[in-house]
C-alpha cells in the first residue's frame, strides 16, 4: 500500500519515510518525483514552525530525515555517461544562512549531468565567493537561499562580482524556498527556480548555446 510521503515527513515519521522511499525505488518510481514529495513535506513542517505548532527541534529532525532520503536516493540518480566536463559551477549558501539540503540536491544533479562543481558550503562570506570565482573562473555561480534576510547578501555578492569585473563572463542562478522572479531582478541574477532539475537544464542549455 502506498504511503503519503509528504504527510509522513510532516509527521516526522523517519522510519516510515525511509521505508517508503526504498519501496518506491524498488517499484521504479522517478527519483525526482520522490524528492519533490519529500520537499512538500518539509514545506509543511516549515509552515507549522511559522505558526508555532512546531519548534526548532522539529526543523532539525526534518532536516535529518531529508538527509536520510538523499542518502537513499543518491545511488539511484542517473549518471550521464561522459568524461567530458559540461561546464563549471560554483555553488554556495551565502553568509547568514546555513540551509544546505536544496543546494546539495542541485550539486548532486549537476555532477550527475557532467558538470564540475565547487561546493563552497554554507554561511559563505561574499569575499570568499569572489576569491573563488577569480580562481576557478566558473561558467555559473549558484546561490541557494532559504532566509528572507539572505536576499540582500545575494545582491551584495552579485554587486561584488560586477565591481571585480567578473560578472560578464558567467551566469548567476538562484534557488531555494524564498526566491521568486522578483528576487531574481533584485539580486541581479540571470535565472531563478524552485526546481533543482530546472536549474540544471538551464545550465545545460546555456552551455549548448540555446
Ligand atoms: C529543514 C529546515 C531547517 C534546518 C536546515 C537543515 C539543513 N541542513 O539545511 C535547520 C534546523 C538548521 C533550520 C534552521 C533555521 N531555519 Co529553517 N527551515 C527548514 C525547512 C523546514 C526546510 C528547508 C528545506 O531543506 N527544504 C527542502 C529543500 C530540498 O528545498 P529547497 O531548499 O527549497 O530546495 C529546492 C529548490 O528550491 C531548489 N534549489 C534550492 N537551492 C537552489 C539553488 C539553485 C542555484 C537552484 C538552481 C535551485 C535550488 O532545489 C531544491 C529541490 O528542487 C524550511 C521550510 C521551507 N518552507 O522550506 C525552514 C525555513 C527555511 N527555516 C526558517 C527559519 C526561520 C530558520 C531559523 C532562523 C530558525 C531559528 N529560529 O533558528 C534557522 C536559520 C539558521 C540559519 N542561520 O540559516 C524559515 C525561513 C523564513 C524566512 N522567510 O526567512 C522557514 C521557511 C520556516 C518557516 N516557514 O518559518 N531550518
The total beta strand count reads 5
Question: Any idea what the shape is?
Answer: globular
Helix content: 40-55%
First-residue to last-residue Cα separation: 44 Å
- Strand order within the widest sheet? 2-1-3-4-5
Structural class: alpha/beta
Q: Please provide the ordered H/E string of secondary-structure elements.
A: HHHHEHEHEHEHEH
Percent strand equals 5-15%
Unreliable residue runs = none
Task: Enumerate how many helices there are, as a single number.
Answer: 9
How many strands, which pairing sense, and closed or not: the largest β-sheet? 5 strands, parallel
Q: Average pLDDT across residues?
A: 95
The oligomerization state is single chain
**Gyration radius over CA:** 18 Å
Describe the protein's architecture and organization.
The chain has 210 residues and is α/β, with parallel strands linked by helices. The protein has helices at residues 5-10, 14-26, 31-50, 56-73, 101-112, 126-136, 151-163, 181-187, 196-207; strands at 88-92, 116-119, 140-144, 171-175, 191-193. A five-stranded parallel sheet has the order 2-1-3-4-5, sandwiched between helices. The radius of gyration is 18 Å and the shape is globular. The chain starts with a helix and ends with a helix. The mean pLDDT is 95. The protein binds cobalamin (B12). Cobalamin (B12) is lined by residues 39, 42-43, 45-47, 49-50, 56, 59-60, 62-63, 66, 96-103, 105-106, 142, 144, 146-148, 173-178, 193-196, 199.
Amino acid at each position: 500500500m502506498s504511503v503519503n510521503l509528504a504527510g509522513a515527513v510532516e509527521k516526522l515519521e523517519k522510519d516510515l519515510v525511509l521505508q517508503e522511499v526504498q519501496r518506491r525505488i524498488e517499484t521504479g518510481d522517478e527519483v525526482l518525483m520522490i524528492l519533490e514529495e519529500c520537499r512538500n513535506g518539509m514545506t509543511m513542517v516549515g509552515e507549522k514552525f511559522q505558526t508555532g505548532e512546531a519548534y526548532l527541534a522539529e526543523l532539525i529532525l526534518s532536516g535529518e530525515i531529508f538527509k536520510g532520503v538523499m542518502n537513499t536516493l543518491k545511488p539511484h540518480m542517473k549518471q550521464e555517461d561522459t568524461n567530458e566536463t559540461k561546464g563549471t559551477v560554483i555553488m554556495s549558501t551565502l553568509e547568514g544562512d546555513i540551509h544546505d539540503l536544496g543546494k546539495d540536491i542541485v550539486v548532486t544533479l549537476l555532477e550527475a549531468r557532467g558538470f564540475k562543481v565547487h561546493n563552497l558550503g554554507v554561511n559563505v562570506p561574499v569575499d570568499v565567493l569572489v576569491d573563488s570565482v577569480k580562481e576557478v573562473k566558473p561558467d555559473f555561480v549558484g546561490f541557494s537561499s532559504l532566509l528572507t534576510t539572505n536576499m540582500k547578501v545575494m545582491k551584495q555578492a552579485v554587486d561584488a562580482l560586477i565591481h571585480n569585473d567578473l560578472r560578464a563572463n558567467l551566469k548567476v542562478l538562484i534557488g531555494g524556498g524564498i526566491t521568486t522572479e522578483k528576487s531574481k531582478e533584485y539580486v541581479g541574477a540571470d535565472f531563478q527556480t524552485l526546481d533543482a532539475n530546472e536549474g540544471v537544464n538551464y545550465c545545460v542549455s546555456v552551455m549548448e548555446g540555446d
